[in-house]
Design goal:
This protein is mainly α. 86% of the residues lie in helices and 0% in strands. The chain has helices spanning 5-21, 27-41, 47-59, 64-102, 104-109, 111-142, 145-159, 165-193. α1 packs across α4 (64-102) and α3 crosses α4. The longest helix is centred in the middle third of the chain and has 39 residues, at 64-102.
């Protein structure tokens, strides 16, 4: 049964609002939650599409959740879908930060809030680890030595050698474009021969 556009827009807003409300620790945390929502539960995207969305949102400027909202919203309902998803994504942090800014001094000196934030960090680390494992599994599923080598080299460069993540992303983008060019030329050569 085909869902109405209004239902899709509401689902986008509601889903992103809930995900954004429950996401502590930055953009990478929301990736696994989005995967569960849009790939497993709603089945709007498949695994490969979600991996592509993740790669694009990490490479584009701006916050990862907002970038992902734009792409997923547009994929499901065009410009209105993007607007609905983005509004659902940015509303919870705006509300929370507005409240915190009113009571900043009380939050800063409250030992219970400090402990709660420490506990949340442990949970955030676990969620980020889950995202890393799932993304790595998808790279290994592709069974391309180039992708696996790029993943390992990128990790070594950023973690051990202190290379900027932006440089790593740009180099990987360049390698990916070269790989695409080689694939297109090979395909063109096959068609000319065949």
């Amino acid at each position: 049964m085909k869902k109405s556009k209004a239902w899709i827009l509401w689902t986008l807003f509601k889903s992103m609002f809930v995900l954004s409300s429950c996401t502590f620790g930055g953009g990478f945390v929301i990736v696994s939650l989005m995967k569960k929502k849009f790939v497993e539960e709603l089945q709007w995207l498949d695994e490969d599409e979600m991996l592509d969305v993740t790669a694009i949102t990490q490479s584009a400027p701006g916050p990862l959740p907002v970038n992902a909202s734009v792409i997923i919203g547009y994929r499901m309902a065009g410009i209105l879908g993007s607007l609905s998803a983005v509004f659902g994504t940015i509303l919870p942090p705006m509300i929370v930060l507005s409240i915190i800014s009113l009571f900043y001094n009380q939050f800063r000196t409250n030992k219970y809030i400090a402990v709660a934030l420490q506990v949340m960090r442990a949970g955030v680390a676990a969620v980020i680890f889950d995202v890393v494992i799932n993304l790595a599994k998808n790279v290994f599923k592709a069974r391309r030595i180039l992708y696996i080598a790029m993943m390992i080299i990128a990790f070594v460069c950023t973690y051990f050698l202190g290379v900027s993540a932006m440089i790593v992303i740009l180099v990987c983008l360049g390698i990916g474009l070269l790989d695409l060019l080689v694939s297109v030329l090979k395909e063109k050569h096959k068609k000319e021969i065949g």
